[in-house]
Amino acid sequence: MRNQTNLGLAGNWNQALRISDTPLVTLLHSDDELHPEYAECVISTHMAYPNAVAVFTRASIIDTDSKPVFSFPDRIKRVIESLKGPAPTVSGEEGLNGLLRGQYIFCPTLCYRASRLDPDPFQPRWRMVADLEFLATTLLNGGEFVGIPEELYSYRRHDKSQTALLTATTERFDEEIEIYGELSTRAEALGWLTAARTADTKRIIRLHLTYRIIGDLLHGRREAARSKRTALKSASHA
Q: What would be one Pfam family of this protein (predicted)?
């Protein structure tokens, strides 16, 4: 099925969820790969946790030739994550605080329970952080996610992906700074002060910007480094 107009990332995800007619739905990204055990594992986990809004898995990182590739930012996320036990739950302030420390849930690994989703759960205003906004809003509203510690999904990183294109500029970071500010306010309103402080510090955004600035300078991309330094100042004072 092809959309008659370009709905954007969030709009396309909403449309896919809207036309699906199964109790469980995974939005498989066109350049990624599911592992053979993915379906069986997410279905059995959903059966064990009927209140979960979605089930997610760990992901391996591959290149354009489907070969494993090392990614420093993704390695940091793996260190930050706290998936312990056979199927750990992510919920409440602790869950939100973990995501704000570093978004370790790969959105395309999510298998959604359609009956637990609000209509059009992804906000079209975002080009990059629609997934983080959805995850955080679900947790703020009392929902929960369940993680599978095994790698059952291969996420392809390449220079032409939307993530790569928005990371090369500051658009990705501008959105992250904005959404962290909004989530800080929402968390504080619920009395989730630890999560609010984590959102306020924006530590993971500042670390990522610093990493990208160093990479730009090493490759002679001085203008790109300069724009990211401006974003870094914004993240430090927002």
A: Glycos_transf_2
> Residue 151: beta bridge partners?
58
Comparing CA positions, the residue from 168, 157, 68, 58 lying closest to residue 109 is 58
Q: Which two tokens stand for residue 20?
A: 């699906």
Alpha carbon of residue 230 to chain centroid:
24
CA distance 18 to 213: 40
Q: What are residue 144's DSSP bridge partners?
A: 91
Token pair of 233 as six digits: 């100042």
DSSP string for 117-130? SPSS-S-TT-SS-H
Interval 23-52: pLDDT, tens: 999 999 888 999 999 999 999 999 999 999
Mean pLDDT, range 75-102, rounded to an integer? 82
CB of 172 closer than 8 Å to CB of 78:
no
